[in-house]
From TrEMBL:
Main location, first listed in the record: endoplasmic reticulum
Compartments in which it is found: Endoplasmic reticulum membrane
GO BP: protein N-linked glycosylation
Signal peptide (from-to): 1-22
Organism placement in taxonomy: Eukaryota, Fungi, Dikarya, Ascomycota, Pezizomycotina
GO cellular component: oligosaccharyltransferase complex
Protein name as it appears in the record: Ribophorin II C-terminal domain-containing protein
Residues that span the membrane, as ranges: 191-214, 226-249
Pfam name, any one: Ribophorin_II_C
Domain Ribophorin II C-terminal: 181-284
Domain of life where this protein originates: Eukaryota
Keywords: Endoplasmic reticulum, Membrane, Signal, Transmembrane, Transmembrane helix
InterPro entries documented for this protein: Ribophorin_II_C (IPR056790), Swp1 (IPR008814)
Membrane topology: Multi-pass membrane protein
């Protein structure tokens, strides 16, 4: 068995390590990342550190007088390098609205982003909480990175709340509508009806007295029934039928049933009435009163 020299074994090991590192693609990441919120005219706020595996857990707020600054260094694997794209996505998780802001990145990988409340679209400022997501990547085989780094609550003053847009109209299922129909019309109390009935009945003697005072002659009744034995009774019965229909409408039936009954009675009353009045006219022409 022939053994290779030690120098050859070392060279082969180095080539194998290079081949393995070249075959395994690296990933984009970042280091020395900080987020700082400072108020205008005051001292700089504390720096909040975060990594690709440990986002900021503290509750953060962004007022209209605050400025937000993010500093970090991008890396491809273990090498500081400038990526092709580096953005901060600001998203409202409820409405799914989002906007993005690009970093100012140097060739050394050092990146910076300055952000104020005025830079964020008005539609996002009405959200109860905004998600800040860092996205970086580039050409090649290196794996890009997308990670949420913090959640920030925008705090609006009275002037900013006035310019907030109204929520957009959404076509969706509405709540069930319960229809409340008007109650059926009720008849007046029976006492009032009886009072008016008595008043009408009290007028009947006066009506009959007026007829007889104006020379109403009942002695012609047998002669008129003999001349027209069908027309007179049917005409009188149709008048009673009209009164019965009106009474039924007042007590229990509706308007449609009333119209149907009147439609049936009207032709009968018209035909019988014309024949009955024709017989009366004939007696008048003969001078019979």
């Amino acid at each position: 068995m022939k053994l290779l020299p030690t120098s050859n074994l070392l060279a082969a090991g180095l080539l194998l390590c290079q081949w393995v590192s070249a075959a395994t693609p690296s990933a984009w990441t970042f280091a020395d990342a900080t987020l700082q919120i400072s108020q205008k005219g005051a001292e700089a706020g504390p720096k909040q550190k975060f990594t690709s595996t440990s986002p900021i857990s503290d509750a953060l707020t962004l007022k209209n007088t605050d400025s937000l600054k993010i500093l970090l260094t991008t890396k491809e694997g273990d090498t500081a390098k400038r990526p092709h794209q580096l953005f901060l996505f600001v998203k409202d998780t409820e409405s799914e609205l989002e906007s993005f802001f690009s970093f100012d990145v140097k060739e050394s990988g050092k990146a910076r982003l300055d952000l104020t409340q005025k830079d964020i679209p008005v539609a996002l400022l009405s959200a109860p909480s905004l998600s800040f997501t860092l996205v970086l990547g580039s050409f090649g085989q290196s794996t890009p990175l997308s990670i949420e780094i913090a959640k920030i609550t925008p705090v609006l003053d009275a002037a900013a709340k006035k310019v907030l847009p109204e929520p957009p109209l959404k076509y969706q299922k509405l709540n069930e509508i319960h229809h409340i129909f008007r109650a059926e019309p009720r008849s007046p109390p029976k006492v009032i009806s009886l009072v008016f009935l008595a008043a009408v009945a009290a007028c009947l003697p006066g009506l009959f007295g007026a007829w007889f005072g104006l020379s109403a002659n009942l002695s012609h009744l047998p002669k008129s029934l003999a001349a027209s034995p069908v027309a007179h009774p049917i005409f009188f019965a149709s008048l009673l039928a009209f009164e019965a229909v009106f009474f039924a409408y007042y007590t229990q039936i509706n308007i449609f049933q009333t119209l149907a009954a009147v439609t049936v009675i009207s032709p009968v009353a018209l035909l019988s009435g014309s024949r009955a009045l024709r017989e009366v006219r004939a007696r008048r022409l003969n001078g019979e009163r």
